[in-house]
Amino acid sequence: MSEIPSLPETNEIKRADCYYSLSVSIGAGVTFLLGVIPPLNLLCINFIIGAFVTVYHFNKTNEISVTKPFGIRVGFYGTAIGGVLLIIMQCLMFYRIFGTDLRQIKQMYMDMMSNVMDPQQLQEAFATIPDELTVGFVTQITFWFLVVFMIAAFICSLIGGSYAAAKIKRGPLVR
Q1: Quick one: 30 exposed, middle or buried, by C-beta within 10 A (0-12, 13-18, 19+)?
Q2: Could you tell me which residues come within 8 angstroms of residue 86 by beta carbon, excluding any fewer than 6 positions away?
């Protein structure tokens, strides 16, 4: 009998052989927890660190190295889920603090902007904001929060995910 030829060994493995869920969950948790801290949330540092932690844990768990595009993708999964959780939490906190009455929020912003704008411009600018919270208004705000958070998550996962992919090498390469 003839021997079955063996396949040449490569230094790459398939993505399907890797385990994502735990790494993405940890990255989402880090993104969410750091997003609760106002300075980190304002500067989007929570997204950068969340993407880095996601890729770092993914590499460590699977004992592999990833390319930058793959690191960005894995980092984005973690930051996107963490960002959605953060939006939900912020919307619930907003509702808990202010309820359905938006008059006090409008007045607070009008007082802040009164030094910059004249009273006529101020009234026109805030005339479009309703006094009561409606389903349509909540839907619009939530949609725009989602858009902004997903853009921030993607840009920051470019930074955190590609940096982690470049610096952390653990074994065979995943493309």
Answers
A1: buried
A2: 31, 32, 35, 36, 41, 46, 149
Distance CA 57, CA 18 (A): 12
pLDDT above 80 (res 18): no
Residue 119 belongs to domain spanning: 20-170
C-alpha distances out from residue 56 to 53, 75, 175, Å: 5, 9, 16
Question: How many CB atoms sit inside 10 A of residue 70's CB?
Answer: 21
133-153 pLDDT per residue, tens: 677 777 787 788 888 888 988
| 3-class DSSP state of 174 | strand
Non-local CB neighbours of 70 within 8 Å, separated by 6+ positions: 15, 165, 174, 175
Would residue 107 count as lying in a domain? yes
Answer for the pair 66, 174: CB distance below 8 angstroms, yes or no: yes
pTM greater than the 0.85 cutoff? no
Locate the DSSP E strands across the chain: 12-13, 65-66, 173-174
* Mean pLDDT (the chain, rounded): 80
Residue 59 lies in a domain: yes
State the number of CA atoms in the 13 A half-sphere of 139 facing the CB: 3
Task: Work out how many domains the chain is built from and give that number.
Answer: 1
* Residue at 169: amino acid letter: K
